[in-house]
Amino acid sequence: MTSPDIVIIGSGIGGATVASGLAGSGAKVLILERGERLAASHATRDTKAIFVEGRFRPKEMWREAGGADFNPGNYYYVGGNSKFYGAVLIRYRREDFLAMEHFGGVSPAWPFPYEELEPWYSKAEQLFAVRGALGDDPTEPFHSLPYPFTPVPDEPAIARARNELKGLGLHPASLPLGVDIEAWLGEGRTPWDAFPNTGSGKMDAESAPLAEALRDPDITLLTSAPVEWLDASADGRTIVTVRYRYQGEAKSVSPKLVILSAGAINSAAILLRSPPAKGKGLANSSDQVGRNFMNHNSSAMLAVDPRRRNDSVYQKTLMLNDYYLSDGKGGKPLGNVQLLGKIDGSILKANVRHAPKFALDFMAGHAIDWYLMCEDLPDPESRVTVDGERIVLQWRRTNLESLERLTKVMRANFRACGYPIVLSRPFDKRTPSHQCGTIRLGDDPAGAPLDPYCRSFDHGNLFVVDGGFLPTSAAVNPALTIAAQALRVADHIRRKDLAR
Ligand SMILES: Cc1cc2nc3c(=O)[nH]c(=O)nc-3n(C[C@H](O)[C@H](O)[C@H](O)COP(=O)(O)OP(=O)(O)OC[C@H]3O[C@@H](n4cnc5c(N)ncnc54)[C@H](O)[C@@H]3O)c2cc1C
């Protein structure tokens, strides 16, 4: 392809889904992806290789602002972080689009309501073949279409946990999942959460929207093509050149439209690295690029009963939203509770290195492993900056009181369900799994780099479609909301004929 109409930077959830929405439009689209396709190997289903040796982590180092360098859990492959994701494909709740008072401050309103995104959520659920059930979750927003497939079944220990929670008067519900469980287990009897997908069992950005997009001969993927920066025109109104490397050589391309989808942290870094070198970068007259970094406040909670084994293989089929909109007593919201993929002794050992492995194996074999997730609020001082090539992350956490309270209430619930030992540990600060907010959308160019269709207020031919556009983190997993908005943006580009 000599001169594409549109260049998409990154093939993760945002980039691949916007590409699928542009398929059949007649526009020539080039996707520039920094990584390669993940190949199947023994290591892709080996907990030691994944969690202890960190075999799939990138070679690069980031820096904690004012602190040490660290190797981030941020994955560069075709499909991006979604190759490793837990495939929970859940909608933000209706209330997440409105201003909401939390213990740590106010979560601001989106520039449009849930109803605006609803049809696109339904389309995204079809695209990712989501398995789920409507009707059990008290916070469930309106769905114009049912889930395309029935839920992934609970394993016996989880079916029991579901009944125990119901016995407390709570409302456990099936997690909406992009997982074909027979296909996944057919390729190896392991959990899928944090395990790389190299087959058809997990609906990730590569296996679902990218596969669909690449059926269009006008859409091309170029791998091992990291984008370095963008150049704006002399008057600053448009992006004229995308600068990238391919096989070690500096390359450039000049499309009519640029869609930046490198993930919330890397997209901000690309804009901040763009000339003028000592300025604020591109798309940044609001001075908000890189700011408002959010990543959820979350903990792992192990409910252990030494008398009962948990023989689950995958485990991850339940969630609880009884504390999502309030603390259960009419107070402020706490957050979402969902299962983790089944943890084993090796995964625990990677986190608690001093403990003997046999004790960790016993603990893992008798635990049900939960994930507690609370909203992180936008703070302009929580930010991504760049120091030459290096990404510098200053994550100022907010709203930690919600996590403390959720931990307390769930510990009491699991004890009441008969688990005598309940252990919890906050997730590592250096794993930016749910990164978002760094290039947010909004109504006001003074407070947001992007308009409600993810178009840069500064440069008319630049869109940013990845976790960066999210103005709030809510307290649910982000991928489906990124995908729904990506489909909405693609439709907007087509209807307005913006690639001409
Ligand atoms: C272990 C794990 C579990 C998770 N579980 C869930 C879950 O269950 N549900 C959920 O909703 N979310 C989950 N997430 C989060 C989810 O994966 C992300 O929210 C989602 O992938 C973000 O989409 P994105 O488009 O913003 O970025 P990504 O999907 O990460 O895509 C960014 C893409 O850009 C590429 N790229 C980066 N820099 C450049 C560059 N300079 N040039 C060219 N290409 C570049 C990357 O290689 C990547 O392909 C999980 C994440 C992790 C790590």
Question: Which terms would index this structure?
Answer:
alpha/beta; 20 strands; 500 residues; binds flavin-adenine dinucleotide
Report on the architecture of this protein.
The mean pLDDT is 96. The protein is globular. The protein is built from eleven helices and 20 strands. Helix 1 (13-22) packs parallel to helix 11 and helix 3 crosses helix 11 (479-495). With 500 residues, it is an alpha/beta fold. 23% of the residues lie in helices and 18% in strands.
How many DSSP H or I helices?
11
Outline: globular
Query: What structural class results from the helix and strand content?
Result: alpha/beta
Report the β-strand fraction as a percent range: 15-25%
Strand order of the largest sheet: 7-14-15-16-13-19
Let me know the average pLDDT.
Answer: 96
Give the low-pLDDT segments.
none
Rg, alpha carbons: 22 Å
Number of strands: 20
Distance between the termini: 17 Å
- Small ligands present: flavin-adenine dinucleotide
Helix content: 10-25%
| Largest β sheet strand count, sense and barrel closure | 6 strands, antiparallel
